[in-house]
Amino acid sequence: MARTSLIAREEKRRRLYEKYRKIREELKANGDYEALQKLPRNSSRVRLKNRCMFTGRARSYYRKFGISRLVLREMALRGELPGVKKSSW
Question: What is the reported pLDDT for 65?
Fold first, then answer.
């Protein structure tokens, strides 16, 4: 339950970011920092956190694939990632 609520909270932040992105860019370009301060905190890009699309894990996230190291390893073992092979010696 805790993991699902974290994922839901992150999704809410992502939607807010998308909603206010254009307004934020215009305010930055005009240098109107007082109006920028009045926007919701969660609408800022800095507050977003990368999470694994399968497990919701925030740590050890690979941007190239959008997944965590644990899922990356499992998918590489099964051959589901094109061009990725798990090394063994």
Answer: 93
| Residue partners of 6: CB distance under 8 A and separation at least 6 | 51, 56, 58
Quote the CA–CA distance of 30 and 82 in Å, as a whole number.
Answer: 45
- Which tokens sit at 8? 């839901």
- C-alpha angle with apex 60: 59 to 63, nearest 5 degrees? 110
The amino acid occupying position 60 is S
Identity at 63, one-letter amino acid code: R
Average pLDDT of every residue of the chain: 90
String of DSSP letters for 22-55: HHHHHHHHHT-HHHHHTS-GGGSGGG-----TTT
For 4-18, how does the pLDDT look when each residue is reduced to its tens digit (9 = 90+)?
888 889 899 999 999
